[in-house]
Amino acid sequence: xxxxxxxxxxxxxxxxxxxxxxxxxxxxxxxxxxxxxxxxxxxxxxxxxxxxxxxxxxxxxxxxxxxxxxxxxxxxxxxxxxxxxxxxxxxxxxxxxxxxxxxxxxxxxxxxxxxxxxxxxxxxxxxxxxxxxxxxxxxxxxxxxxxxxxxxxxxxxxxxxxxxxxxxxxxxxxxxxxxxxxxxxxxxxxxxxxxxxxxxxxxxxxxxxxxxxxxxxxxxxxxxxxxxxxxxxxxxxxxxxxxxxxxxxxxxxxxxxxxxxxxxxxxxxxxxxxxxxxxxxxxxxxxxxxxxxxxxxxxxxxxxxxxxxxxxxxxxxxxxxxxxxxxxxxxxxxxxxxxxxxxxxxxxxxxxxxxxxxxxxxxxxxxxxxxxxxxxxxxxxxxxxxxxxxxxxxxxxxxxxxxxxxxxxxxxxxxxxxxxxxxxxxxxxxxxxxxxxxxxxxxxxxxxxxxxxxxxxxxxxxxx
Length: 464
Known about the structure:
Blueprint: E1 9-14, H1 19-34, E2 37-44, H2 45-55, E3 67-72, H3 89-96, H4 101-109, E4 118-122, H5 127-135, E5 139-143, H6 147-161, H7 175-178, H8 198-201, H9 207-214, E6 225-228, H10 236-245, E7 249-251, H11 255-260, H12 282-288, E8 295-299, H13 308-320, E9 324-328, H14 343-352, E10 355-358, H15 363-367, E11 372-377, H16 381-387, H17 405-416, H18 420-440, H19 446-459
Parallel strand pairs: 1-2, 1-4, 2-3, 4-5, 5-6, 6-7, 8-9, 8-11, 9-10
């Protein structure tokens, strides 16, 4: 990806308040900076403070020209101590109630050198559309979600008016109903109720999160361009249907594969970290001592939570599987409970030495490590598209993250034991990885070409 030394313009990048959204937008901003854009990266004060505390020196931009951070006030108290609150509701309420609009307008109205030429916003920060219109700036809405999720949200009100969703009572949570095929979602054949986004099918949706998610889809027609973090081969049919409705829609992913092509020649970009938690890199040394594809990586992301009972069953399932594992246990992983591990688990771990536990890790480095042979995750899109490697689904009741230890043990062994199912999963994973690499490859990969077209035909400031 050729670097442009001259200025293409000044892009103001606005991220959403979640770890996966921040990481994806920072990667996208790095790509734009490499192409010659001056970048102003906008966080809320709460998120800005957390990034500074977690990343330390890596969050310093000394010696990195044309990339700066700005924070806009959100009215929230700063993170308290080592364990900031993970309750997203207060921050979501500030967004959906337009609290951030006027601070953002104030930021845009300041004198900037070079002048601001475009806004690249997380699609869920819908106040930016109002701001772009006021200042006459083109805006790109960046969606760090799947094209299928995008389509579900876009079609939600139509589906609800037909009585297809949402769930009405507890009887809808029965297994046979969850397996019911949902008709009428363009580009998404044979999708089941189980497969729908949880907050779309929920009986009692969280209003803060539901409004935060759905409101942006009322603003789509006002955006200059829409970007979805996916690639053509992964979701071709639904992307084709979306493109017929939104002509200026670009599938650009996987972002890390695009970044890999430029970070060698633009090493300063590596100085900008992504994490809201301090990363423990000791796990990489532990992985170095393991055989190729011998370790299962277990991480439920930055926001998913499980009950204390589920936590214990997962722990014992991993221990009883007799497989090597790297398990990321956030301080707030257990809902309303402690992350202290049971004595039986500690004894097994001490006896076998087959596990390593950390509170957070550099996920890109872990997923790219040759010793990783499988990934057990909550299936958030950030983790899924980052890996495009072997994962497993452990089905349970509505919103259940894990089941009993014997089922965890069974699935982990099937994934890691080198048997027929393991071979099949890894074959599929290798194929998707190949297709992802092809999409990001210069000069003809679909994501590579889409990014070049976005820069050259949509975002580049016209020269007088």
